[in-house]
Design goal:
heterodimer, A: alpha/beta, 6-stranded mixed sheet, 4-stranded antiparallel sheet, 8 helices, 10 strands, 33% helix, B: mainly alpha, MetI-like fold, 11 helices, 0% strand
Chain lengths: 263, 286
């Protein structure tokens, strides 16, 4: 169980990026964090990953406080961030240093074929497409079998087809070990397809504005009535979270179904 | 004959021609670069043979070759080449070590960079040949001052290259290392070193080039052996063939040593995403 208790972050320049944020993630749960830009959602994720330390509050995984990157927490960034000097297989095996070579190879090969790139093992990262590279990054994060997988807008740089494909693929991978998953996104559809719970954040200072449960049976149909119902609730919450911010064109009218991207 | 069997009959020639063309092009391209010097040399040889010029100040290729042969047979060439190579090697080693260590520290630590970099940049602005009198006063006329001068020439491009490379390592890649909890040494070995390697190889090669430049300057100053001495000797005794032979030896040695550095680094840089590799990438994707 992951506990975030009253976490806040003030940057050295005085910007209060995050304030009084508390929530709990149960084992096997998928949580999406959504909100306008600058609402502190990436700050929150980086604090949980241990890459940045919060200035206030406490984060704990199964009672153990998180103050630095932890072996049970994996992260996938917006960019694949593959190491260009390692082959695809070596990139996947990057986090497996403490195991013998043959075992590392075996695990990496398994993870690669699990993301559908088994035949790309010996290839350099520069030879991959954007979607393939992000799948390798997913395999790299999953191969040490983390209990928590953090995803920071992982599919936002990809085209719509690849994005939908990878969302489904991510759920497949998640089903193997069912880690807790926290997904930061600005794509409402993505949040609803993937998450059990959607947290809408609001900025100045960043905090959780509303929490919406998505009780839709899996696999989820993006065109079902239940999906649309949750989606309209999320969009309404987003609307209200943006009221009073100086972005009149976004809060003035209710966005149509096509306006799923929130920057 | 059916269409299919016709195609099958045509296929082999179709497949062979582009491959043969490509291998031909691979040989033809460097040959093209040789065309100009070969034509010029042959032309000059012809002019001298015809007696249109004595070739006293500009010796024809045959006379340079004879000089080369003479130097090689008497063992002179090997002696001078060895001495010069040893000087370059020693200066290159010292300059490389100093440049790498200082460059890495200055790139890594803002404090050290603020402290040391302005002075070093100031020293870099001094034409390095200006050091010669001082080095001779300090270190004597023999080997030490020569090696020191070469080391100074090698130091600056390597220092600058390493510092720039360390400074420009992508923060996002370093973060990957942090997320996987790499220790300090592991971070250097698995992230920083490979990330700076391409720039480091370029720095080494330009450092080596400067090393070859400075060895001549060093050997002009009171040397009794070495290729630079051979140049001076040729000038004083009025033997242009000897000068040209020494220059050619410099060219060959410089090219070979540069090529050795590039070749030694190549296996570590196969991952690089360079525009000259475009063809290869397309091949793989197909």
């Amino acid at each position: 169980m992951l506990n975030v208790e009253n976490v806040g972050k003030t940057y050295p320049n005085g910007v209060r990026a995050l304030e009084g944020t508390s929530f709990t993630v149960e084992p096997g749960e998928i949580v999406a964090v959504i909100g306008g830009s600058g609402c502190g959602k990436s700050t929150l994720l980086r604090a949980i990953s241990g890459l940045d330390r919060p200035t206030r509050g406490r984060i704990a995984l199964d009672g153990e406080p998180i103050t630095a990157p932890h072996e049970k927490i994996g992260i996938v960034f917006q960019e694949p961030r593959l190491l260009p000097w390692l082959t695809v297989a070596d990139n996947v095996a990057f986090g497996l240093t403490d195991r013998p070579m043959s075992r590392r190879r075996h695990r990496a090969a398994g993870a690669l074929s699990r993301v559908g790139l088994g035949e790309k093992a010996g290839v350099w990262p520069r030879e991959l497409s954007g979607g393939q590279a992000q799948r390798v990054a997913l395999a790299r994060a999953l191969v040490p079998q983390p209990e928590v997988l953090l995803l920071d807008e992982p599919f936002s740089a990809l085209d719509a087809f690849t994005r939908v494909d990878l969302q489904d693929h991510l759920l497949d991978l998640w089903a193997d070990l069912r880690p807790m998953m926290i997904l930061v996104t600005h794509d409402v559809d993505e949040a609803i397809v993937l998450a059990d719970r959607i947290m809408v954040m609001r900025s100045r200072p960043g905090h959780i504005f509303e929490e919406i449960r998505a009780d839709i049976a899996r696999p989820r149909d993006r065109n079902s009535a239940a999906f649309d119902h949750v989606k309209s609730r999320v969009l309404m919450a987003l609307d209200r979270s943006l009221v009073g911010e100086r972005v009149p064109e976004m809060s003035a009218e209710h966005p149509g179904t096509g306006a799923a991207m929130w920057w | 004959m059916t269409v299919v069997s016709m195609e099958a009959a045509i296929e082999p020639t179709k497949a062979q021609t582009p491959a043969r063309k490509r291998s031909l092009a691979r040989f033809a391209r460097p040959m093209l670069g040789l065309l100009v010097p070969v034509v010029l040399a042959a032309g000059w040889e012809f002019v001298v043979r015809m007696g249109w010029s004595t070739g006293r100040l500009v010796p024809p290729p045959s006379r340079i070759y004879a000089e080369f042969e003479e130097l090689a047979r008497s063992g002179e060439l090997l002696r001078h080449v060895t001495v010069t190579l040893l000087r370059v090697a020693a200066g290159f080693a010292v300059g490389t070590i100093a440049g790498t260590v200082l460059g890495a520290i200055a790139g890594y630590s803002t404090m050290v960079r603020r402290l040391v970099d302005p002075s070093l940049q100031g020293l870099r602005a001094v034409p390095s040949i200006a050091w010669i009198p001082l080095f001779i006063l300090w270190l004597g006329i023999f080997e030490t001052s020569k090696v020191a001068l070469i080391a100074v020439g090698v130091f600056f491009p390597i220092y600058l290259g390493v510092m720039g490379a360390v400074l420009s390592v992508d923060r996002k890649i370093v973060e990957v290392g942090r997320a996987f909890r790499l220790s300090g040494p592991a971070m250097v070995r698995r992230i920083l070193l490979p990330a700076v390697l391409p720039a480091y190889v370029i720095a080494l090669r330009s450092g080596l080039g400067l090393g070859w430049m400075f060895v001549i300057a060093a050997e002009f100053m009171g040397a009794s052996e070495g290729l630079g001495y051979l140049l001076i000797d040729g000038q004083q005794l009025g033997k242009p063939a000897e000068i040209v032979a020494a220059i050619l030896a410099f060219a060959v040695l410089g090219k070979i040593t540069d090529w050795m550095v590039a070749l030694a680094a190549a296996p570590f840089l196969r991952w690089e995403d360079r525009f000259t590799r475009q063809e290869e990438v397309v091949d793989v994707e197909r």
